[in-house]
Amino acid sequence: MRRLAVIVALVVVVFGVIGGLRLFGGGGSGGTSTSGTTAQSGTSPASAPVAQVTSTRAAGLHVQQNRLENAAGQPVVLRGVNRSGTEYTCIHGYGIFDGPSNAASVRAIRSWGTTLVRIGINEDCWLGINGVPRADAGANYRRAIVAYVAELQRYGIVPEISLMWAAPGRYRATYQPDAPDADHSPALWTSLAQTFRNNPNVILGVWGEPAIGASCFANGGICGATYGPRNAPYRSAGSKQAVRLMRAAGYRGVIAVPGVAWANDLSAWLANEPQDPLHQLVAEAHIYGGQVCASVSCFNQTLLPVAQRVPLLFGETGENVPGTDCSARAMRTILGWAASHNVSWAAWTWDTWGTCGSLISSYAGTPANPYGAYIHQTLKTLV
Predict the structure, then answer these.
(1) Which of 87, 186, 330, 333 is the one with CA 20 to 30 A from 251?
(2) Average pLDDT for 286-309
(3) pTM for this one?
(4) Residue 6 main-chain phi, psi, to 5 deg
(5) What is the extent of the structural domain holding 191?
(6) In what helix (H) or strand (E) does residue 121 lie, and over which residues does it extend?
(7) Are residues 80 and 346 in contact, defined by beta-carbon separation less than 8 angstroms?
(8) Total tally of structural domains belonging to the chain
(9) Phi, psi of 75 (to 5 degrees)
(10) Whether 71 contacts 200, CB under 8 Å
């Protein structure tokens, strides 16, 4: 049995390397450097290790019109999973990851045929502010994220690193609010971009799920976002500012900009698209069964016009939002439409929470329920 396990492990490693070469077009991930900006509190950019990648082509993963391409110019459609945990465990002092983040756990993710893993970022933990335990914040948190990104890329997986939990002022980032905040999110975007500016095979996500109007999310301002037990209004930072800051920090790669209504509505995305001099934006939608936009007719009306202009990514998708339906009825519709229109997607979520929204029952990659089994089968079929 030990010899068989070794053989299986070697096969998985070789499969991951071959998949990585195909996906990255000859590029890949290398080591990391600890150089960065000076760490400070407040809104100043935090110090971060800079993820370094050696690639035969400078472009790496990139946008070409309305499709993603690898460094060799081959069209790429990314499909995979969310890996939740890094957005919430650190703020509560439970560590940085929910579950393992080692090579064996990444091999299990890759064994499903995964080529995309979305990682949520906690603003306070990344910047090391607002009293987050030092062991789980600042440089320690950033190094852990950089190392996990490198491990994913080692097995041919593209990471999307997305700001998800944040908070204005002295509030602690203990949940995902309506919008990024003007107090700290600009510093986060700058630091995130500096960290991955030399890594051409990542996607940086501006925000998770905006719950404000499209113009407000694009431009920022005091226009609907609230936080805290008394729902105090706060000034939000806009997606246009995010793109400007990321480019000013030297990041030249792909940036994901979500729609509004918890990223389920892209009807105003094109009208509020940030200006990107590099034309490397993708539109991100979150699509779950039972949402306002979860039907083919809605997809054709609100998503298709966007997908005809820029690459479209379902950054989160699942059977239903509360994670109470273990079937895959809605997913057949959602992923069927995605396949017909070359839409990339990441299923929610590679975690062992015991809910219907959990894809796995163990971090070895055992599907947890019919929903997980369907995602597993779909990913394996598309390898």
Answers:
(1) 87
(2) 98
(3) 0.88
(4) -65, -45
(5) 2-382
(6) strand 116-122
(7) yes
(8) 1
(9) -60, 140
(10) yes
Q: What are the CA-CA distances from residue 99 to residues 16, 146, 317, 324 (Å)?
A: 21, 17, 21, 22
Pair of tokens at residue 134: 């030092």
> CA angle 346-342-73, nearest 5°?
100
Quickly tell me which residue has 């995305």 as its tokens: 269
Sheet containing 75-76: which strands, arranged edge to edge? 62-64, 67-69, 75-76
CA distance 317 to 348: 6
- What are the beta bridge partners of residue 346? 80
Amino acid letter for position 91: I
| Residues 78, 299: Cα–Cα separation, whole Å | 19
The CATH number linked to 298 is 3.20.20.80
pLDDT band of residue 382 (cuts 50, 70, 90) is: confident
**258 Cβ contact list (under 8 Å, min separation 6):** 205, 206, 207, 208, 209, 210, 283, 284, 285, 286, 315
N- to C-terminal Cα separation, the chain: 27
Question: Could you tell me which residues come within 8 angstroms of residue 300 by beta carbon, excluding any fewer than 6 positions away?
Answer: none
53 to each of 56, 137, 282, how far by Cα in Å?
Answer: 10, 24, 22
Amino acid occupying residue 155 = Y
Q: Are strands 281-288 and 254-258 parallel, antiparallel or unpaired?
A: parallel
Query: Each residue of 106-158: pLDDT tens digit?
Result: 999 999 999 999 999 999 999 999 999 999 999 999 999 999 999 999 999 99
Give the tokens for residue 77.
């459609």
Would you state the pLDDT for residue 49?
61
- Residues for the chain: how many in total? 383
Helix (H) or strand (E) segment spanning residue 164: strand 158-165
